[in-house]
Amino acid sequence: MVFPRITHHGSATGVTGSCHELHADAANSYLIDCGLFQGGDTANEGRTGQGSLGIAFPIDTIRALIVTHVHIDHVGRIPYLLAAGFEGPILCSEPSAKLLPIVLEDAFKLGVSRDQRQVERYIRLIEQRIIALPYNTWFNLREASDLVCRIRLQRAGHILGSAYVELDLTYPKTGESKRVVFSGDLGAPHAPMLPAPKAPYRADILVIESTYGDRQHEDRRTRRQRLEHVIEQALQDGGTVLIPAFSIGRTQELLYELEDIIHRAQTKSTASSRDGVEASGPDGAQASGLEKNWPELPIILDSPLANRFTAAYRELKPFWNQEAIKRVQSGRRPLGFEQLITVESHGDHMRMVRHLARTGRPAIVIAGNGMCSSGRIVNYLKAMLGEPRHNVLFVGYQASGTTGQIIQTFGPKRGYVELDGERLVIRAGVMTIGGYSAHADQDGLVKFVTSMRRRPSHIRIVHGESKAKQALAARLAAIYQDKQQPLQLEIPQ
Questions:
Q1: Neighbouring C-beta atoms of residue 255, cutoff 10 Å
Q2: Rounded distance, CA 173 to CA 161, Å?
Q3: pLDDT digits 0-9 by tens, 313-363
Q4: d(Cα 369, Cα 72) in Å, to the nearest integer?
Q5: Is there a cis peptide before residue 195, judged by omega within 30 degrees of 0?
Q6: Which of 12, 67, 220, 274 lies in disulfide reach of 190, CB 3.0 to 4.6 Å?
Q7: Contact 422/436 with Cβ under 8 angstroms?
Q8: 111-148 per-residue burial string, b: 16 or more CB within 10 A, e: under 16
């Protein structure tokens, strides 16, 4: 058998359940991510029910688990990996080492047990297994006469702590060596708080995601203005703007940009009061009541888990980009501003749902989960989808088969969605803002490949729907053909 070789235990035919095994030789392999299947991927990957959680592959040769980032579709099966008998280390970046126990505690409570003693024992086990790696630093996984393997993590720009993985494999007996790169989830430029990813110097084999392999994002540099405009339009209806968002990454980006909108409104209002004139918009018209009242608009973060992550983000300021750090140094609180209301208990959550559903006070609610398949956002949707004065604003990818994708597709057509067995006609407004994805678009993915000084001769495209993978493959093939470079291109099935 030829080594190295790669097998995929998830995200081969969909966008969730990321789990890839690099077989360095017959006796040593390394697992990159071990994520949960979501939405239609549970069926697409041939798994249903509890089977989608189990570990259906042998683990006897797996020496280490390498985590690219802590989203649940990349780490959600770790409890089941440990239950299957995996005893190796868990390697991740330094920020991920702080965030991962929070994610896995929540996953354990949801999928295994809420017994506090069991939870604490499990988290201690996780923390003992974690090895936190600094970015851009080589770490030896194995150094023997038959195999030398080392790993390096580089910033991926997707969420705080995200990384792509470089693995150097050397076979001393033959003198052969290979560098294998796993992209994880790559971010896009101009993301709030995060530096943009930079391509590696080289790769022989590349496993690359393709979530947006068939499209380009809207201009990310103007997305704050678009967010402000869309929310103001929605608030004219006198209701609540619901923003489904995952607890980590998207939520913190939204808070960061909402704080900036409020800060600018306050600055404009202060300047206008000082000058004795009313604030005016970009076209010279007087500012609307909503524009002037942004500083009083409640921003409701209804997610205990997101609150924990947001607190952790604040503690990880050294890993923010320079723009975000400068805001803090100037006295601003990008993730803890005055208008932010956090909701913790379930009772307070239900009271907030009822209050917003029956009043006409404008408000913005951020709640999980991001694809509306579970979590507190479901109660808001059940209470508000039937009312035209409320709006749902999507700012993230909605995987095929998820509740969010159904609302996004059929909401503008006044279709329906089933929530907890109840069919609800969608009368609320449904809007989507592009440019908010935490994933690179097609140009970004292609640039990741073509910016390498020594481009890979073998590329495997994963983590995308079929049309996205095919589109990315076609573009890469054309580029390599123009340069007359050899390329083995694979789309695993």
A1: 25
A2: 36
A3: 999 999 999 999 999 999 999 999 999 999 999 999 999 999 999 987 899
A4: 11
A5: no
A6: 220
A7: no
A8: eeeeeeeebeebbeebeebbebbeeeeeeebbeeeebb
Amino acid at 21: E
Strand partners, 62: 29
3-state helix, strand, coil in the chain (%, to 5): 35, 20, 40
- Among 203, 251, 249, smallest CA distance to 439 is for 249
Distance, CA of 409 to chain centre: 21
pLDDT band at 237 (very low <50, low <70, confident <90, very high): confident
Angle between helices 223-235 and 250-275 (to 10 degrees): 80
* Closest CA relative to residue 81, chosen from 54, 48, 60, 100: 54
Which tens digits make up the pLDDT trace of 122-166?
A: 999 999 999 999 999 999 999 999 999 999 999 999 999 999 999
pTM: 0.88
Average pLDDT on 267-281 reads 64
Radius of gyration from C-alpha coordinates of the chain: 23
Question: Alpha carbon of 166 to those of 112, 163, 178, 199, 354: distances in Å?
Answer: 33, 10, 10, 11, 50
